[in-house]
Every structure is written in structure tokens, then in C-alpha cells.
Amino acid sequence: MNRQWTALLLPAVLALGLVSCVRHVGYHYYPDAPRFEPTYPGDVELLRREPRRSHVRLGEVWIRPNPGMSRGYVENKLREKTADMGGDALVIVVDRFLRSGVAAYRHWRGGTMVHRERVIVGVAIRYR
Fold first, then answer.
1. Spatial separation of the C-alpha atoms in residues 2 and 76, rounded to whole Å
2. For an engineered disulfide with 44, which of 9, 59, 72, 79 has Cβ 3.0 to 4.6 Å away?
3. CA 19 to the chain's CA centroid
4. Contact indicator for 122, 51 with CB cutoff of 8 Å
């Protein structure tokens, strides 16, 4: 009986350990992007399309929100990570949480990506 529990418990513990290692919010720079000092999160704009104003793309910011997270919490986290990169704005390119209709996009730096999970992905930009 003890062996059966061990056989069932071990995979469950390993799976929980792997899930806990996945960050729910983060960012990464594009390899050739310039680096800037952090900005103030309250000044970061959240946009739904690329602005006409001249800018530089810094990298991507993402969050995998839980259903219990409020819209304000999610938006604040996106602003914080964008500000950490030195960005002035975040252009949302995938939104599978606040707007359920956007599932695929033509990424500015690569091919087509499809997201089926709850995720918001944006491109951090710095105005020139």
C-alpha cells in the first residue's frame, strides 16, 4: 500500500515543482535593443496598436494572469515590467485575458505565433 502512494505522490510533487518554477510575469530584451534607465510605471502607456510616433522596440513583456487577478493588477504589472526595461509604452500584441478575441498575431520580429493559454504579450517601446 505504501508503494502505491509513493508511486502516485512522486509524479504529483515533481509536477508541482515544475509549475512553481514558471514565472507568471516577465520580460526579455531583443538582442540588438538599446538599454535605458528604468522609467516611472505610472507614465507607461498601454496601447493596442503601434504608434505613429518614432520609437525603438526594446523587447517583450508578458503576464500569464490567473482568473482571480483584477484588470488593474494585470495592467500595473505590465507597466512595472515595461518601466523596468526603460520603456515609455507597451503595445499589446496578444491578449487572451482582457480581450478574448486576439489569439494569433504576426510578430514584429518573427513568424506567426498562436497562444491558447491565458496570456498577455506586448512589445515595450521607447519614444525617440
1. 47
2. 79
3. 17
4. no
As a three-state string, the secondary structure of the chain is CHHHHHHHHHHHHHHHHHHHHCCCEEEEECCCCCCCCCCCHHHCEEECCCCCCCEEEEEEEEECCCCCCCHHHHHHHHHHHHHHCCCCEEEEEEECCCCCCCCEEECCCCCEEECCCCCEEEEEEEEC
User: How far is CA 39 from each of CA 7, 36, 80, 125, rounded to the nearest angstrom?
Assistant: 50, 9, 9, 12
* Domain ranges, ordered by start, for the chain: 23-127
At 125, list the grid cell.
517601446
Give tens-digit pLDDT for 91-104: 999 887 665 444 44
Q: What is the pairing mode between strands 112-114 and 25-29?
A: unpaired
What cell numbers appear for 90 in the block? 507597451
**pTM of the predicted model as reported, rounded to 2 decimal places:** 0.71
HSE (side-chain half, CA atoms, 13 Å) at 36 = 20
